[in-house]
Specification:
With 70 residues, this protein is mainly alpha-helical. The chain has one domain. The chain is built from 2 helices and no strands. α1 packs antiparallel against α2. It starts with a helix and ends with a helix.
Length: 70
């Protein structure tokens, strides 16, 4: 349960960071739109990659449990 809570905290922090970067980028008028768009794509990809990695490792653990349980 502790790992699950920590994982949720990390995801929440990533979401907050993404929101702050999006708001900041939208407020900036001195950077080209393409740079702002790339910054937003980059920062939001962190959360997506983390979630995908968590899903992959939980599938590995489930597979290991199923194989060892036979």
């Amino acid at each position: 349960m502790d790992n699950k809570r920590k994982s949720n905290e990390i995801l929440e922090q990533m979401l907050e960071l993404s929101e702050r970067v999006i708001k900041y980028t939208e407020q900036q008028r001195n950077i080209p739109r393409s740079v702002g768009d790339q910054l937003i794509r980059s920062i939001t990809a962190i959360g997506a990659n983390y979630a995908e990695a968590q899903d992959a490792s939980s599938k590995k653990v489930e597979k290991l449990v199923l194989v060892k349980g036979k």
